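Hi all, long-time lurker, first post. I run a small reading group and we've been trying to get comfortable going from sequence to structure in the token notation. Rather than ask abstract questions, I figured I'd post a concrete chain and ask someone more experienced to write out its structure so we can walk through it together at our next meeting. Sequence below, copied exactly:
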Amino acid sequence: MTAHAPPPATSVAAQVAGISHLSMDNLWKLWDEHFDERPGHHHRGWLESRLAYKIQERAFGGLKPSLRKKPKDIGETGILPKQLRNDAQRLLPGTILTRIYDDIEHRVLVRGAGDFEYQGQRFKSLSAIAGHITGSHWSGPVFFGLKTPATKKVTA
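-- Answer (accepted) --
Happy to help. Here is the structure in token form:
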């Protein structure tokens, strides 16, 4: 009698890749192996993404508690960390910004970096558009809600 080696363990990548090929019955079986309770909905894409994360988390470890806390803090306060605020200000071409000012809806098309279109006219900055709309100096990112206004410091 010869001893046989155990079959090789399926790689994490193969496990994650295989999720999308499972039947719903098998998807739920896998869910039950990884979670204590089932969600109240049956959105397959959501289930697959949660399972993929859980499989990777078990294999490689989860996020540090400080990182897990950040999205919760953002949701509660609405304040993005500085790096994310900077990333949020990089607008993709095709993005349309809207702002109601003086009961008129103003729409701006982002054409690229430093290239915006408002009412068929091209502008190099959102601030130029905000100034054009209001007739006074405005921060474009603040005017269009992309950035919170800086608070003024009161001196004693």
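A couple of things your group might point at:
The chain has a mean pLDDT of 85.
Helices lie at 12-19, 24-34, 44-60, 65-77, 82-88, 126-134, 140-143.
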